[in-house]
Amino acid sequence: MTEALSWVLTDTANRVYVEQCAITPASLGLPAAGGAWSVSKSRLQGGLADGVDVVDINNGHLSFTVLLSRGMGLWKGACGDCTIGWDSPARGPVNPMFVNLLEQGGLGWLKGFDECIVRCGLNSNGAPGIDRVRDNNGNLSEVMLNLHGYIANLPAKYVELKIIPGKRPQIVLTGVVEEARCFCPQYRLVTTYTTEVGSNRVDIRDEVENFADSPVEFQMLYHCNFGSPFLDGGARLVSPSLEVAPRDPRAAEDIKTWNVYRAPEPGYVEQGNYHDVAAAADGSTLAMLRNHRGTRGVTMRWNKKQLPCFCQWKHTSGPAEGYVTGMEPATNYPNLKTFERERGRVMTLAPGQRYVIDLAMEIQESQEQVAAIETEVGALLKRKKTVVHPQPIAKWSPGA
Q: Which CATH architecture does the domain made up of 5-388 adopt?
């Protein structure tokens, strides 16, 4: 069998909905090449997760869960003996029906925040606050922007699973999520997860389309969050950073150790650093979080031409408070949209325009694999020293 096999799991336009299914090599009459891979779809029941649709993908070595009800985010996973993700105080996955995004001055987004990879956008992605935009009558009006936008709390309207046979079969999951309403911007996100059976990697391709008849602003940030076993006291961020600056005075307190993480510390107040990273001629770049011993690592890869900005989020609080760090490639820095617009970092999509973003997550399970990524990062830097600013700088932070 050489042709791709496909299943439509959700298609609201044609009233198709599959609540449960399970697919394995045995169920398809295929050899279990590379391991006992499987894909299953289910709907969760009970608590705040009630009604959340999930797809569990296991390629025989790497497994992960995609949340169809939460913007196609990647929730948690495992690779070998490494768990992937973090333990959020917002025990989820949380059905968006329980999330009021405008609660607490626009911080309600945090009530559902516990994914490993969560998209922030599409109309805005930074701090909450007031923006001024033209309304449907052409008048300037004030609107409240919530933290990190809407896309992570919207369900997919179309989901399709494909198995591409071969020596190393590929598992491909595609979902379509729309962020639109009358008199407002209209976005369509088509996201595709692809993983090869037996591999330590998942590739993500997002296509964001403006399906309105007028230009719209666009922002996207990938909040990629990890805890143990990659994060521990003395863990390091390995990145080809040409320039690093603290987001605010709080982050400036530890800017001398910007790439080193603390052990869990109850009551720790988050810190954020903004980076400019080096990239290859084709725009490809990466960043790795590695544990203190250098025996485990998780690497995010992206293209700087698509995602020119990078934010590092430190939240090394107590375990029950969410011991986590974030690697965040983005189209802009996560400040209030008004500031990013003034600095020319808010994109505009023409009617019908599509913006393509490629992202990948890899797991390093040995000292040798971690060292190989460190060598790759060093090659991008070409012996350049990272410029570390002791205080926030005006081009990246408001009020600097």
A: Distorted Sandwich (2.70)
Cβ distance 85 to 115 under 8 Å? yes
Q: How far apart are CA 39 and CA 35, in angstroms?
A: 13
Residue type, 383: R
- Positive or negative, the CA dihedral 179, 185, 186, 192 is negative
On whether the CB atoms of residues 278 and 284 are closer than 8 A, the answer is no
Q: Please classify residue 171 by burial: count the beta carbons closer than 10 Å to its beta carbon, then call 0-12 exposed, 13-18 middle and 19+ buried.
A: buried
**Type of residue found at 102:** L
In whole angstroms, give the CA distance from residue 242 to residue 73.
Answer: 30
| Alpha-carbon span 315 to 262, nearest angstrom | 9
CA 356 – CA 354 distance, rounded (Å): 6
Examine the pLDDT at 33 and tell me if it is beyond 80. no
Per-residue pLDDT averaged across 37-52, rounded? 97
Contact 332, 345 (CB under 8 A): yes
pTM over 0.70, yes/no = yes
pLDDT band at 258 (very low <50, low <70, confident <90, very high): very high
Name the strand (E) or helix (H) holding 180.
Answer: strand 170-180
Inter-residue contact 124 to 179 (CB < 8 Å): no
Instruction: State the Cα–Cα distance between residues 384 and 388, nearest whole angstrom.
Output: 12
CA geometry: angle at 133 spanning 130 and 135, to 5°? 125
- Cα 282 from Cα 86, distance rounded (Å): 32
Which residues are within 8 A (CB) of 316 and not within 5 positions of it... i.e. 6 or more apart? 231, 261, 262, 263, 264, 265, 268, 323, 324, 325
DSSP-derived pairing of the beta strands 354-364 and 201-210: antiparallel
Q: How far apart are the first and last CA of the chain?
A: 61
The ranges assigned to domains in the chain are 5-388
